[in-house]
Specification:
globular, 2 domains, alpha/beta, Aldehyde Dehydrogenase, Chain A, domain 2, single chain, seven-stranded mixed β-sheet, five-stranded parallel β-sheet, Aldehyde Dehydrogenase, Chain A, domain 1, 20% strand
């Protein structure tokens, strides 16, 4: 029988008054589980549970909060194979990437647990005698986390790990394409021993659950990963309440291949960057910008490699690329392929939906490569699928200009053996991340993750040392032990003879 899940509110799985929806395997069409569409009243209940839990959770010493996060990491590690298979079954990425998705959550929870002993402030000299000045970091309150389907355990892990170690209870809305992954993740958090109300999960629509979380007066910060239009809506709604917002909204990421690049290494990176997760990553390599001196060689190698990729059921260890995640995703990618053809881009390989046999049950698209002009839509717009645009550049300056010509600024890469171009790229490429001799994917949890331009605001970053910025505020503390009234700026002038 198909398992029926409820909502997780105030430490318990609860039945919902809302209608139910199915989650399916994108490779086979199999129904995996059913979930409720939470109602507005249930959103209010979840936020109230988080609000009621806030005072106790924020007063729990951060190192103790870290111990619970570390226990959650241990549970995730113990269940890694099971969870990795759930990710692959529900989202469609190949099993090695499914395990990697879970490993990111393990890694970040382990990292965040240590931050419970590292919430550094500053202690600085006062301009007056017998007075101490310092800063401390405090949690903002209950927070809303709205996550996408492409990293259905990793991204909830990044967001929730930072919020929880900061002292903020969470109300978590996963994508309706991957609620089973989210529920399995929450089961691990529940087992770890988070107090009731600290972790809450609601499934359902963006219009009811997502908007309800963002607009709720007791939610004091929102972290969202998804499309630009929805992100802009979240940003505007949150701005009306003057609360913190973290946004990561996509990319049109480029690899620059200079004429001295190691072509074999480049091809390994391009295959993984462009077709890993069937191109459904915010950091996926969507453009390959090639120096004209090696353009023909690189294109020949690229087409040969793409045509050898094994496409099929992602649970099979031998599969290189699985399906895209949903019929809507398939429709969008195929529409972009048609746009490329109509605009005159040269189709080098792929470009079709795979049919016949087991392919008929899922959403399989051939790895697709186009030779594209820099001003065409395939070179400018995020596709979020296994479609790579190849562009020719005259030299480094031309390649960097092409890379920077899009509205996004998430990830970037350059392949070269010349330090001049590597260091120029670090400065010149308009992106939150730059790789040298590696593809545009592969972020590590101990470093900040985010971008610029329409990828999202530059004042917040997920993961790394800046992860707590989304969920905390700074308080400045002055301790005057002089025993008399001291007036900054006024008395300071007297002290220095002014």
């Amino acid at each position: 029988m198909v398992q029926e899940y409820g909502l997780f509110i105030n430490g318990k799985w609860q039945k919902s008054e809302g209608k139910r929806f199915e989650t399916r395997n994108p490779a086979t069409g199999e129904v995996l589980a059913t979930f409720p569409m939470a109602t507005a009243a249930e959103v209010n209940r979840a936020v109230k549970a988080a609000k009621d839990a806030f005072e106790s959770w924020r007063q729990t010493p951060a190192p103790r909060r870290g111990e619970i996060l570390l226990e959650a990491a241990h549970i995730l590690r113990r269940r890694k194979e099971e969870l990795g298979r759930i990710v692959t079954s529900e989202m469609g990425k190949v099993i090695a990437e499914g395990r990697g998705d879970v490993q990111e959550a393990i890694d970040f929870y382990t990292y965040a647990a240590g931050e419970g002993r590292r919430m550094f402030g500053e202690t600085v000299p006062s301009e007056l005698p017998n007075k101490m000045c310092m800063t401390v970091r405090l949690p903002v309150g209950p927070v809303g986390l709205i996550t996408p389907w492409n990293f259905p355990v990793a991204i909830p892990g990044w967001k929730s790990g930072a919020a929880l170690i900061a002292g903020c209870p969470i109300v978590f809305k996963p994508s309706s394409l991957t609620p089973w992954c989210a529920a399995s993740f929450v089961e691990c958090l529940d087992e770890a021993g988070f107090p009731p109300g600290v972790v809450n999960m609601l499934t359902g629509s963006g219009s009811v659950v997502g908007d309800g979380i963002v607009a709720h007066p007791d939610i004091r910060a929102v972290s969202f990963t998804g499309g630009v239009d929805t992100g802009r809506h979240v940003y505007e709604s949150a701005a009306k309440k003057m609360i913190k917002v973290g946004l990561e909204l996509g990319g049109k990421n480029a690899i620059i291949a200079m004429d001295d690049a190691n072509v074999e290494l480049l091809m390994d990176g391009v295959m993984f960057g462009a077709f890993g997760t069937a191109g459904q990553r915010c950091t996926a390599t969507s453009r390959l910008i090639v120096h004209e001196k090696v353009y023909d060689q690189v294109v020949d190698e690229l087409v040969g490699r793409a045509e050898k990729l094994r496409i099929g059921n992602p649970i099979d260890e031998k599969t290189d690329m699985g399906p895209v995640a949903s019929p809507d995703q398939e429709k969008k990618v195929l529409e972009y392929i048609e746009i490329g053809k109509k605009e005159g881009d040269r189709l080098l390989t792929g470009g079709k939906k795979l049919t016949g046999g087991a392919y008929d049950k899922g959403f399989f698209i051939q790895p697709t490569v186009f030779a594209v002009d820099r001003k065409k839509r395939l070179a400018q717009e995020e596709i979020f699928g296994p479609v790579l645009s190849v562009l020719k550049a005259k030299d480094y300056e031309d390649a960097a200009a092409i890379a920077n010509s899009v509205v996004y600024g998430l990830s970037s890469s350059i392949y070269t053996n010349d330090l001049r171009w590597a260091f120029r790229a670090m400065q010149d490429l308009e992106a939150g991340i730059t790789y040298v001799n590696a593809p545009t994917i592969g972020a590590e949890v101990q470093l900040p993750f985010g971008g610029t331009k329409e990828t999202g605001p530059t004042d917040t970053r997920e993961a790394g040392t800046t992860a707590l910025e989304e969920f905390t505020y700074w308080k400045t503390v002055y301790v005057d032990y002089s025993g008399r009234l001291q007036r900054a700026q006024i008395d300071t002038a007297k002290l220095v003879g002014g």
